Predict the structure.
Amino acid sequence: MDLDGIDTTRLPVHIACVMDGNGRWAQKRGLRRTDGHAAGEEALFDAVEGAVDVGVKWLTVYAFSTENWRRPVDEVRFLMNFNESLLVRRVDELDAMGVRVRFSGRRDWRVPKRLLKRMDDSVARTAHNRRMTLTIAFNYGGRAEIVDAVRALMEAGTPAAKVDEKAIRAHLYHPDMPDPDLVIRTSGEFRISNFLLWELAYSELVFTDVLWPDFRRGHLLEAIREFQRRDRRFGGLEN
Ligand code: IPE
Ligand code: IPE
Ligand code: MG
């Protein structure tokens, strides 16, 4: 792998991706939007392999947002079935790569039971892996996550004076997950679309015109190079 220009001692610990542009990729080819989602599988696995090979410890991918229920019912149904089949077909491969699979999002009634079961099986099957954690944000919304954290705090009877950033973080979906250092969004859109609102307070954002089905590990490495050119100050002064 061409690590040219990448300083492996300063890798982003956590990379998060908004996998966007599947529909446009398909439309450009005269295909159905759903063919674009299917083509995104290769991009996802190439990115996962690339991240594992380069030594990234956490990769989070946005697969379905709490707003994506607004899509036509056929597309939503396709995405549910497709994600289930992806787990059925490829979880062994992820396991063999040393990837721990996790999910982030709401387990509400709209997510088919069979898919929830498959998600649970995939998590259990790969729970022992530590090479990299792949978090799949599914039926995920950043606002929903914060709402759920606040609800959990209230249900625990937390007094107002004890509600601080640490307490909120402790009630996010995965409190042990480090904040993303780098967020990549494909398809030329410059927005966050309700992804990881709490966690990306100080993330470096990289936008690329590449449509998700065309994304490959080389694009991931390019984003890491861009990340390494940035000067992160966290509100302080540069070193
Ligand atoms: C991203 O691709 C995948 C999901 C949101 C599920 P899109 O389906 O949003 O593709 P575009 O943005 O319409 O091209
Ligand atoms: C964000 O993409 C959600 C996922 C990639 C799963 P969208 O395509 O849903 O975002 P908008 O609608 O362009 O903001
Ligand atoms: Mg989109």
The CA atoms of residues 138 and 201 lie 21 Å apart. The chain has a mean pLDDT of 97. The longest helix spans residues 73-96.
